[in-house]
Task: structure prediction
Amino acid sequence: MLDSRYVADHLDEVREQLARRGAEFADALDGVASLVSSRRELSRKTELLQGERNTASDAMAKLARSGDKQGMAARRDELKALSERVKGLETDLAGVEAQIEETLLIIPNVPHPSVPDGRTEDENVVVREWGTKPSFSFEPKPHYELGEQLGILDFERAAKLSGARFSVLWGLGARLERALQTFMLDLHTREHGYTEVHPPYLVKAEALRGTSQLPKFEDDLFKTKRSDPDDPSALYLIPTAEVPVTNLHADEILDAAQLPLAYTAYTPCFRSEAGSYGRDVRGLIRQHQFDKVEIVRFAAPEQSLAELERLTLHAEEVLKRLGLHYRVVEHCAGDLGFAATKGYDLEVWLPSQRMYREISSCSVFGDFQARRAKIRYRPEPKGKPRLLHTLNGSGLAIGRTWVAIVEQYQQADGSVLVPEALRSLMGTDRITSR
RNA sequence: GGAGAGGUGACCGAGUGGUCGAAGGUGCUUGACUGGAAAUCAAGUGUACGGGCAACCGUACCGAGGGUUCGAAUCCCUCCCUCUCCGCCA
Result:
């Protein structure tokens, strides 16, 4: 969420910055500006009258102590009227504040000045590549064909259980999923300094509001208690570990010395994929449920851009160790996530598609999430609390990593070599038909 | 799910209608004392918004929301959470 006062005081600037995203928020922004000025006026009036009421109330207390029943009776009506006026103003003020919040909650973050222009993902900028495209003496197969032939991947039975966009992994396929969890968590905790977290997979609406999946992207989420969809206490399945992990520090004031905080978490992720009906219908690329190891950092504002580079390298290291060819692209302004102010995608090479596909998204959110979730830190021991900056990235999406390994390491005979780094966890150096 | 108890500042804990942003203690910070430290003594020590160059002042906040009242941390209602016992369960 943007700062309402900043928006009101820098209307044109914010308008221009948001225009880079290719979206129009003119009306909403004007609305915020005028609401902010009526809030100022209203709160001044309210406080003045509250002060009057408090003074009068103290006088009443004195009368009460001196047992002046008559004096009290004489003033009661007058005070009641005053009190009613205060309540009226308080209600109005709360109304204005709610309107400001409501508007601001659906306005995206402004792109950082360093973010390149562009409308769609086609205008993202390739920053660097790592490794080389594997070459094959045969036509490389898609992972879903290989997986089914090897008996490690089963969509038919998944459909029987849960419908489309679910999968069952068998044998070494399941083992590979588990090996990847362990491998990634071990790398981040042992070598990159992250603290491992095991969070809940069901969260309150409040948490989703903190990281900005709500209120705007409710359709993308699975909500529990469907029998009473309006129950405000209904829990949601997490679409990413970002939600529970970032909100760990909601409503907290951290010490500067604690920063940067670095957490990693393995969780399943649940996404309704509403509106993506025709896309990636085959294979593991787009599922309602997938596993992911997430990395999350909390940083002082001055550090956050450098922290983004660091976090991105941590995610990249996973691909390097697995020997998977990939590239890094920077989001153009139009392709930036709702809450992000700058970000990179890691795209892994999929031979069967002859394409780079997103396997990680690393973002810095500035104070956008911190303002929503009220995550602050104290710059100096006695100083005023200040919003910190949040960051996160996939480190990595495990399903897509599984896909990349099967495709990049496939052999002419249909078997799949196990990357060196996973061999001890897998207990084998090759996946063959069972 | 049933019965009971409770949610107060960084922490413990007092406060059952008015002068309570909140006693007392602990912790922390600063000062005094000391060769230094401990102990002791003194002062300070929440967050947000508004005003002021500043000292500081005003307003709100005692789990959340609503109500009663001239006035609520204190009374009433609803919800959330924690603890104890029973039941059930992994």
Remarks:
- The longest helix of chain A spans residues 26-65.
- Chain A has 13 helices and 17 strands.
